[in-house]
Write a structure and sequence with these properties.
Strand order of the largest sheet of chain B: 1-3-2
Largest sheet of chain A: 6 strands, mixed, barrel
Radius of gyration of chain A: 37 Å
Mean pLDDT of chain A: 80
Shape of chain A: elongated
Radius of gyration of chain B: 17 Å
Low-confidence stretches of chain A: 487-493
Oligomer: heterodimer
Shape of chain B: elongated
Strand content of chain B: 5-15%
Helix content of chain B: 40-55%
Number of helices of chain B: 4
Mean pLDDT of chain B: 82
């Protein structure tokens, strides 16, 4: 192989030398002949002229000689390509169809591969990323520690060159003048940038040495993007003061371009030190040990293995469990590469993109099978030409090369077009913000790796479908073909073509089935029982603590806001919920204990319940049904006994049966006893549609006050109009109070996003699969019809009925369709199990899906065979017989 | 000149090998030699010669060397290699067998005549 390459390069480099030598030799020949002619009596000039004429077509001959001389691969390659272009231009519709189907398939692969590239292969692009690890709990594969636990881990750990922590949060941002706007803030440990090994683009970063207790480091670092958008790239911005949540922060630096924090799919505007958390959020979490809100990552020491580093962490974990049994349990760790907050989030995403890649590869395979059978058909049609060339002495190698160069040419052109299209799409997706209220980005910009994969896929698929007719060509017997005028049908080869079509249909049926499963899942999840009625509800997010309200004024202001909203015409009900409404990203939870439990350590908890503080009217405003008991009243306040409303799952888990929950007591981690006064329906709480039924509990806002409350306003009025009225009403109460107003359905789009993306991606792949199936079946049917037209004419002349004709014309294609679809359906149902983890209620064992899949494939068959069947029926036997 | 005969396909290589076996020759010389040893009966088309020559070189049956011709011109000379000589032997033998067989077949007369 190497020697061959060397000789190839030698020939390439010394092409001129070879050419000159050939030229010399031919001239020498002519001169010798001229010498002879001169000796025979001609004068020199006439002799040379005569010699040249005798020698004949110089150029044509030189071409042949060159071929024989060098076997010059490059030259012949170019000639093959030129020949291929000529051949392909003879059948433009075939060429265009082939290129388009390939472009679509390769484009789809490029897009999906970019997702793999962005999510799996090229996470954050940080220096020495191979030693950076997210520290997850082994019990739930989530990255989350409390601040005191983080500090203890950071100070005691020896296996890491630093542990850093961060949390993404929202804050009100004001840069002097104008009302504050929502902005995204990373609260990060002082050593964050040092552990990451980043250098500032401008100014400086803060360091561990800047932190001297809560509120001691009012510094902010801008992301490059926010420096460009909020400060127009002004270099004098360093040293300026901005307001975050009404507290002054000094800008000290700008992070390097492209760095947008350590969660792959989120971008942020600012980085502030974690010690400023109380200032940014209004309430301090810095001294709470039982609340796992911080993501922790570290740079493992290079000389250690992962197992050694984990052992080190686990020793500290065991110490912390022993020292703080009320707050800590299950503190054993694993190292993870996750950039999405833990493998628990990461795994489904990975499984999904890999699943998509499989489907996209299947599409490409289907297209290759399709083009392979078309190429085989073409090769059969061209058997006469091939036979002629073989008889004239062309080597079969040369003919094969020709076939392959045609195939590869098509695949390269198709690949280039597909890649171009996918780059356009990806560029658009990379700047797309799926929902403005969340700083979500899709990390899928294409890079060199994507281009390379697209190129490789193009070439590989070219060889794949180019290889289909090879055996057929190699077996061509020139004498046979030239004698009989066409290839005598060899049943085995036709069977192989049929096999390809069946395979292609099976693949397409897989795609159609799984896309239907996903779409159906989405449709169900949109109509699913969320435990709330989000239609005609407006959510108003306010945060009183960061706007300077002291706890004693807070509750009165909340009551005033709710009362003011009730006076807006058209408003039916106004409720309040803290701290986040259901189906929003983020939630609060707490361990709960049976009433008879004395030792309130986490291991003894009866459940881990999601908790809300709500106003008496919340259930009516949110549309959550109370199944038993009573709603809260305004008398459920600090002076009254503590009460709660729980959902069915809570009742089942803590009290064994829903109907036994009323009037029972349970305990919270602080030891307080709470009486259950009402039973609410189950619902979805976290922003994950696929969540299992979760225990949830609702407390009266007056017994569990919170500074961050959401107003839940139910009104049949137009959302736009109502928002304006709400904003005006709020301004009348407190002109400086920041608020964001959104319909609940839009707010839920965050929760529905994964399902929507999955359904859209699978829907597109499914549609592409259907199109490929149609072209494949159409090609087969049309081709076999053109071969059997004469035969059909005879049958019609002999009095065959329409059904017989159709049966003869497209029966084979339809039989293939039936077999392929059946196989594909079964495979698709098996493949769809993967979907269940992403798309809520995606189950392939759904009669609607099965019927729809069968119907879809039937439609595909109908569309694909319609034209050939029509053509078969319109055959005029007498015309046909006369023609041939 | 004697009546010339059409070259059968595949015989050009054999003739070239034979011509060169008698001593190194340049391209034009090979043409002349073939004409000479067939007493002018076999004419090789000039254009067909060189592709055949290069093919034989690539197969390793001939080797080449630049030198000076009897006309005192620079020319590329072709020479038989060892495999070339072996091939010439084999081809000659099989050609003779073929000719003998065909001659035999053509001499056949109707039975009982």
């Amino acid at each position: 192989m190497l020697a061959y390459l060397r000789s190839l390069t030698f020939r390439f480099l010394h092409r001129d030398a070879l050419e000159r030598e050939l030229e010399d030799e031919l001239r020498s020949h002519v001169l010798h002949r001229a010498d002879d002619l001169e000796r025979a009596g001609l004068d020199r000039g006439a002799a040379e002229r005569q010699a040249r004429v005798e020698f004949g077509g110089h150029a044509r001959f030189k071409e042949e000689a060159r071929d024989a001389l060098a076997g010059g691969l490059l030259e012949t390659l170019f000639r093959d390509l030129r020949f291929s272009v000529r051949q392909l231009r003879k059948s433009p519709s075939f060429t265009v169809a082939a290129i388009i189907t390939l472009a679509v398939a390769i484009g789809a692969n490029a897009v999906v591969f970019s997702a793999i590239n962005g999510f799996i292969l090229r996470p954050l692009g940080l220096p020495n990323e191979e030693t950076l690890f997210t520290i997850e709990r082994a019990s739930d594969h989530l990255a989350g520690e409390s601040y005191p636990n983080y500090i203890d881990l950071r100070d005691r750990v020896r296996g890491f060159d630093g542990l850093a922590a961060f949390i993404a949060n929202q804050a009100w941002f004001g840069a002097g003048g104008g009302s504050p706007a929502r902005a995204w803030v990373y609260e990060v440990s002082g050593n964050y940038f040092d552990v990451l090994g980043l250098q500032p683009y401008l100014g400086r970063f803060f360091h561990a040495s800047d932190e001297r207790g809560p509120g001691s480091a009012p510094y902010v670092v801008l992301t490059y993007a926010s420096w460009r958008t909020h400060f127009l790239g002004d270099r004098r911005v360093i040293g300026r003061t901005v307001e975050l949540s009404r507290h002054p922060f000094t800008i000290i630096g700008v992070a390097p371009p492209g760095f947008h924090g350590t969660v792959l799919v989120y971008t942020t505007d600012f980085f502030v030190p974690l010690v400023e958390q109380p200032q940014v959020e209004g309430t301090s979490l810095l001294d709470v040990r039982g609340n796992r809100w911080l993501a922790v990552f570290g740079r493992r020491k290079g000389i250690l293995t992962n197992a050694q580093a984990v052992a080190d962490l686990n020793v500290i974990g065991a110490q912390l469990e022993a020292s703080y049994p009320k707050d800590n349990d299950k503190m054993s760790f694993v190292l993870s590469r996750s950039t999405l907050g833990g493998d628990a989030f990461e795994q489904p995403v990975h499984a999904f993109v890999i699943g998509l890649m499989l489907l996209a590869t299947l599409i490409l395979l289907a297209v290759c099978a399709n083009l392979g059978s078309l190429f085989a058909a073409r090769a059969a049609d061209r058997s006469r030409e091939v036979a002629l060339r073989l008889a004239l002495g062309a080597g079969s190698g040369r003919i094969l090369r020709q076939l392959f160069s045609e195939a590869v040419l098509i695949s390269l052109v198709g690949g280039a077009i597909g890649l171009w299209g996918s780059v356009l799409l990806l560029d658009w997706l990379a700047t797309w913000r799926p929902f403005p209220q969340f700083a979500v980005i899709l990390p899928i910009e294409p890079d060199a790796r994507v281009y390379l994969v697209a190129l490789l896929l193009s070439v590989a698929s070219g060889f794949l479908f180019g290889a289909v007719p090879v055996r057929q060509v190699l077996r061509t017997d020139p004498y046979q073909v030239l004698k009989s005028g066409s290839v005598s049908p060899v049943s085995r080869r036709l069977a192989m073509r049929d096999l390809l079509v069946a395979l292609q249909i099976a693949i397409c049926a897989v795609l159609v089935t799984s896309s239907l499963v996903a779409v159906r899942g989405l449709e169900r999840s949109l109509r699913g029982n969320f435990g709330i009625d989000a239609h005609q509800v407006l959510l108003v997010d306010t945060d009183l603590a960061t706007s300077g309200y002291t706890p004693d004024r807070m509750m009165a202001m909340q009551q005033r806001m709710a009362d003011a909203m009730r006076t807006i015409p058209g408003v039916a009900t106004v409720g309040m919920v803290a701290q986040t409404p259901p189906m929003h990203l983020g939630w609060n939870d707490s361990k709960v204990f049976g009433d008879d439990v004395a030792d309130l350590r986490p291991g003894n908890a009866a459940a881990d319940a999601i908790q809300y503080s709500v106003s008496p009217d919340y259930f009516r405003a949110a549309g959550t049904a109370l199944l038993a008991g009573r709603a809260f009243t305004l008398h459920d306040d600090q002076h009254a006994p503590r009460v709660a409303i729980v959902n069915e799952t809570f009742a089942r888990k803590v009290f064994a049966a829903p109907d036994r929950a009323l009037d029972q007591f349970f305990k919270l981690p602080d030891g307080s006893r709470v009486e259950v006064v009402g039973l609410a329906q189950d619902g979805k709480y976290t922003a994950n549609l696929a969540e299992e039924p979760q225990p949830a509990m609702f407390f009266p806002l007056r017994q569990m006050p919170s500074s961050e409350t959401w107003l839940v306003i139910r009104s049949p009025r137009d959302a736009e109009e109502l928002s304006a009225a709400v904003r005006a009403t709020l301004r009348a109460l407190d002109p400086g109070l920041p608020a964001s107003i959104e319909t609940w359905t839009r707010d839920m789009s965050g929760a529905l996003f994964p399902a929507r993306v999955a359904a859209a991606a699978l829907g597109i792949l499914g549609a592409m699969g259907a199109i490929v199936a149609i072209t494949g079946i159409f090609g087969t049917a049309a081709y076999s019809l053109s071969k059997h037209l004469k035969d059909l004419g005879i049958r019609m002349a002999l009095g065959a009925g329409e059904l017989d004709v159709i049966q003869a014309a497209v029966g084979r294609a339809l039989r293939l369709l039936a077999v392929g679809s059946l196989a594909g359906l079964v495979l698709g149902i098996l493949a769809s199990r993967v979907l269940g983890s992403i798309v809520y209620e995606a189950t392939p064992r759904d009669p609607v899906v099965l019927i729809a899949a069968v119907l879809a494939m039937f439609l595909v068959g109908l569309v694909a065979t319609w034209i050939p069947a029509r053509r078969a029926l319109s055959v005029d036997p007498s015309m046909l017989m006369r023609e041939q | 000149m004697a009546a010339s005969a059409q070259l059968l396909p595949g015989t050009l290589d054999l003739l070239i090998l034979k011509a060169v076996s008698l001593g190194p020759l340049h391209g034009y010389g090979i043409l002349l030699r073939i004409g000479q040893i067939s007493h002018g009966a076999l004419l090789v088309e000039q254009g067909a010669l060189y592709p055949a020559l290069f093919r034989l070189v690539r197969q390793g049956l001939l080797k080449t060397k630049w030198g000076t011709s009897e006309n005192n011109r620079r020319a590329k000379f072709y020479e038989l290699t060892v495999p070339g000589r072996k091939r010439l032997g084999e081809e000659t033998e099989s050609w003779n067998r073929l000719v003998a067989a065909i001659a035999l077949a053509l001499r056949a007369r109707p039975e009982g005549a």
